Amino acid sequence: QVAQLEFDCLRSLAQMELAGFRLDVERWQQYGQWVKQQLLHYQDRLQHRFRDWPQQQEKPLNLNSTQQLQLALSFLGIEVDSTAKDKLEPLSEQPVIADLLKYKHWKSQDSKYVDKIRQAVHPKTGRIHAQYFQLGADTGRLSCRKPPLQQIPRQPQVRSCFVAAAGHKLVSADYSQIELRVTAQISQDQKMIQAYQQGEDLHQLTASLLTETAMDQVSSDQRQAAKAVNFGLFFGMGAEGLRNYARNTFQVEMSLSQAQQFKQRFFDSYLGFNAYYQKMERTKVKRLTTLSGRIRHFTQGYASLTKALNTPVQGTAADIIKRALVDLAAQLAPTKAQIVACIHDEIILEVEEEQAETAKQILEQVMVAAGEHYLPEVPVVIEATIADNWAGK
After folding, report:
1. pLDDT of 332-356, one tens digit each?
2. How many CB atoms sit inside 10 A of residue 125's CB?
3. How far apart, in whole angstroms, are the C-alpha atoms of residue 30 and residue 345?
4. Mean of the per-residue pLDDT values for the chain?
5. For residue 125, what pLDDT is reported?
6. For labeling, which of 2, 23, 164, 177 is most exposed (least CB within 10 Å)?
7. In terms of DSSP H, where are the helices of the chain?
């Protein structure tokens, strides 16, 4: 079944690569200039912070030199054995480290996207024809290169550069909380399943359980913290990891004791997931499967807890999106809509304006049906929009 799914998906992916995704080059160049301004801003801030470092008197600090950065940070009383992002993030409450992480972020944006996206525009079609790899990840998830469209930042000023052709619209749809829904199905946690069946927001429910607040009284800050807890604990983080993840990914501050308390309350609340988690933690797993039967073998040693928890979930989400891609090709034929991108749990179409609403309805129906095929107990929800550019959702 999995092999057949992959074979059937090939045609949709080939058509998607050939169709390409249109880029407003002028708007993209404006974004590129803004990225370079941000990079210069944080470069200047860091040079100012290190102004008293003795070697700074001779020549400016090379912010891309690990050795120089370690020496300069040591001068400020911060000892690090690496300047890699994951080593710096636990120290991000210190202003100089926060600035250094920002500098690294904008440096990465500049090198990964600014010029490479513009250079990827085909000279004849004016579109980006990225390369998709069906088995790009060990979980079965798609990956994308030349350029990496799946890693494009979510900011509106970035995504608004990806546009529909004249007289056309972009129709985009993504799965709401699909990995959480898959987790509920796989772990058979009845509280999660019931919440989804009743149309509740799982992040809001988790916030209510963690803070002992009524569902309708949960604040946006509490929900944001719960989001970090859900994604962090579903994939095996400890309290320290959760604290750093919450700060760096969701801009949520929590103490170590709070993180430990949240973790305990989370597992006390979701007993079905707790039992599943304990089983995966104590079992030495060499073979993992998704809900479609997709197999991941571990020939060298055993799966880590993180991989044991993540693979069936991410792999099933991949099965769902691939099934949707397969079914869409035939269903969309009357509208002449084209699939122009697949970004993790999101599918983007380009279609003539008068057919946009019809294409949107087909996209929603196909994506829901693909999800329901693998998630019989958990309702699948799609969020779809029609817009002139990718930021219009």
Report:
1. 999 999 999 999 999 999 999 999 9
2. 12
3. 28
4. 94
5. 95
6. 2
7. 2-19, 25-49, 66-75, 85-88, 95-109, 115-119, 156-159, 178-187, 190-197, 202-211, 220-234, 239-250, 256-269, 271-282, 305-331, 356-374
For 18-45, write each residue's pLDDT tens digit. 999 999 999 999 999 999 999 999 999 9
Give CA–CA dist 289/284, Å, rounded. 14
Close Cβ partners of 294 (under 8 Å, ≥ 6 residues apart): 2, 140, 315, 316, 318, 319
Amino acid (1-letter code) at residue 259: A
**Segment 77-102 mean pLDDT:** 91
| pLDDT at residue 64 is higher than 80 | yes
Q: Strand 338-343 vs strand 346-352: parallel, antiparallel, or unpaired?
A: antiparallel
Q: Which residues pair with 382 in a beta bridge?
A: 175
Distance CA 45, CA 65 (A): 17
pLDDT at 58 over 80: no
Give the whole-angstrom CA distance, residue 262 versus residue 136.
34
DSSP 270-303: -HHHHHHHHHHHHS--SEEE-TT--EEE--SS--
Beta bridge partners of 387: 170
The residue to which tokens 């030495």 are assigned: 284
Single pTM value for the model? 0.91
